[in-house]
Write a structure and sequence with these properties.
424 residues, mainly alpha, 16 helices, AI-2E-like, transmembrane helix, transport, transmembrane
Length: 424
């Protein structure tokens, strides 16, 4: 067969290089790895498997994450359920710190620590029971007196209304209207339904009081054993710090209660003298009430304690209640600016503004319990951290002294007298 010119040209043309094929000349992929890059167990870098399977660590990580979430939820639920018990334990701990000096002093004289703790708590229980009994009898007597005098008060009120508004009211009509009113019937029903709630609250309060007493007794009686158990899990350097913090807490809590007890004594005696001079009944019990409530309920304790003497004084004469109110206000100022700084300067050593702020924070966190324990807790923390804060001498500057310091060579009289004394 004859070849054409086109075939001859193709045979004589030089061969062109072949293009890249799909199998041999493809550029390498960016994530391609060599066998040397794999781990000993055959996995790729990053934990990937060569066949696209899930890494072995991922299921374990997911199970661990779910377990941690479940543990957190369980712990949060348990904490909220045990909040009341934790607060009772906190109260018991501070109460044990308060009685620690007395128990340790009795134990140092040879008495068994358990017996010493029992005697201290027995004395406190007798004192508290006696005070509650006297206060209850006083309140019961005043309530009976007010009920017996209610007809006379009602007659005086009706007479004043008839004279002022030219009405014709009678006590019998008023009593009949009150007895047959819907308001009184609903109030009686609500009161009957609330008796069960009050009983439950009373029983709950007694149970909490018993819990606090038991824990505080064990904390005080087994104080050395508790400290030994706590220090046994700490290195020696930490043990000294824990024991030092414990000692500071005992000193500050005891000092706080000691200073508050002195101020309660002074306040009770002062109010007793006033009430006795006015002829108000139950003056000794009212004096003890004012002294304790005004000192151990911070900020508003003085005014809350003065409300009961004012009410009792009002039953004697209305003007006596005004005199009691004036005396309470004046004594509060005397206590804040004269008595309290002197008594608490060495025992607690905390600024009044810091004390007030700690009471607010404690009340917001733990309510009345926080208000009671906030001041000794902050004083303990301040004293413990003070050992780790390095202090320096402050320069003599008017901005820190609060007044301008006069130079030694000034032209004042005092400066000239100092210069003449120096020449001699």
């Amino acid at each position: 067969m004859a070849r054409t010119d086109e075939d001859t040209e193709q045979l004589t043309r030089p061969a062109e290089p072949a293009g890249p094929t799909a199998t041999t000349d493809r550029p390498p992929a960016a994530d391609a790895v060599t066998p040397d890059d794999r781990t000993p167990d055959g996995r790729l870098p990053g934990g990937r498997m060569p066949d696209g399977r899930m890494p072995r660590w991922l299921p374990r990580a997911m199970v661990l994450a779910l377990a941690l979430i479940a543990a957190f939820q369980l712990g949060s639920w348990a904490f909220h359920q045990l909040t009341g018990l934790l607060i009772n334990i906190l109260i018991a701990f501070f109460l044990a710190l308060a009685v620690e000096p007395a128990v340790s002093r009795m134990a140092a004289r040879g008495m068994r620590r358990g017996l010493a703790t029992f005697l201290v708590f027995f004395v406190l229980t007798i004192a508290a029971a006696g005070f509650v009994t006297l206060l209850g009898s006083m309140l019961a007597g005043q309530i009976i007196k007010m009920i017996e005098g209610f007809p006379d008060y009602l007659d005086s009120l009706i007479h004043w209304i008839n004279q002022t508004f030219h009405a014709n009211l009678r006590r019998v009509d008023v009593q009949e209207g009150l007895l047959h009113s819907d308001w009184l019937r609903k109030y009686a029903q609500n009161s009957a339904a609330g008796v069960l709630d009050v009983s439950q609250q009373v029983l709950g309060g007694l149970f909490q009081l018993l819990t606090v007493a038991l824990f505080s007794f064990y904390f005080a009686a087994d104080g050395p054993r508790l400290r030994r158990a706590l220090c046994s899990v700490l290195p020696p350097a930490r043990q000294s710090e824990v024991l030092r913090a414990w000692e500071i807490a005992v000193g500050k809590t005891g000092g706080y209660l000691y200073s508050r007890g002195l101020m309660a004594l002074v306040s009770g005696v002062a109010h007793y003298i006033l009430l006795q001079a006015l002829g108000v009944p139950y003056a000794p019990v009212l004096g003890v009430w004012v002294g304790l409530v005004s000192q151990f309920i911070p900020t508003i304790g003085t005014y809350l304690a003065g409300a009961l003497p004012m009410l009792i004084a009002f039953t004697v004469a209305p003007w006596y209640a005004v005199w009691v109110l004036v005396f309470v206000v004046i004594y509060q100022q005397f206590e804040n600016y004269m008595l309290q700084p002197k008594l608490t300067a060495k025992s607690v050593d905390i600024h009044p503004a810091v004390a007030f702020g700690s009471v607010i924070v404690g009340t917001a966190l733990l309510g009345a319990v926080g208000a009671l324990i906030s001041i000794p807790a902050v004083a303990t923390l301040q004293a413990f951290l003070g050992a780790y804060v390095k202090r320096y001498d402050v320069t003599d500057d008017p901005r820190v002294n609060g007044h301008r310091v006069r130079a030694q060579g000034g032209s004042g009289v005092l400066a000239r007298l100092r210069a003449a004394r120096a020449r001699r």
